[in-house]
Design goal:
Layout lengths: L1 E5 L2 H18 L4 E4 L6 H12 L9 E4 L1 E4 L9 H8 L11 E2 L8 H15 L4 E4 L21 E4 L2 H7 L12 E4 L2 H5 L3 E6 L5 H8 L18 E6 H5 L1
Parallel strand pairs: 1-10, 2-3, 2-6, 3-5, 6-9, 9-10
Antiparallel strand pairs: 4-8, 7-8
The protein binds 2-amino-2-deoxy-6-O-phosphono-alpha-D-glucopyranose.
Amino acid sequence: MKFICCNTYDALSEQAAEILKGLIREKPNAILGLATGSTPVGTYRALIRANRAGELDFSAVRSFNLDEYFPISQNDAQSYYTFMRQNLFDHVNIRLENTKIPNGEAKSAEAECALYEASLAEAGYPDLQILGIGENGHIGFNEPSDRLSESTHTVDLAESTIAANARFFDSQDDVPRRAITMGMGSILKSKKILLLVSGKKKHGVLNALFDASITTHIPATLLKLHPDVTVLYDLDAKNG
Ligand code: GLP
């Protein structure tokens, strides 16, 4: 795990975007693993600026998102489908048919999980997976637990995650209780991983990453098992 300290959130976002731009220029049909949450928004904005300036072409890029609430309709204001449209897809020349997000409207969550993992496997898993991190160390929606599922699966959200994500909803009661998420095993199959850690609230979990131990109770520590992980963190996360 390689750690890079950035002074500010904006600097972190620029640096993450530079890594993504490098990949897309080198491999125009790259497969990106994308994340939601507020952390990657600055990175997506930088990518949108580069695309608008004619410096970056998404026409052959493919993507897989990490997770989605379940059940949730695609057009719900809080679905991750809507988030990705609003924060990236609608502003760059990516083809929507090349973007994949677990389907929160699927009749069977279990069948959707199997289908999603099969499409990831068929595509060969992402060239680069961008990740945010939960305050409790969750990755995607892989919540702290004694056991973690390897591949795409359904999950009951932790109370702390429901509370943390309530800021996006009218009330905490409106936050869905379940989600579909890629498993830590699926995530570890990406060729490269870029983990973004920003803000004072992530101080505790950043320290857990600096620590050498690996535990399913802080799912992000499993990323230490991957040979090519870069952690970009800002001074707010470092100093708390
Ligand atoms: C959600 C997402 C995660 C994300 C986390 C942190 O729970 N499922 O993928 O990393 O939020 O979000 P934020 O970046 O807003 O702190």
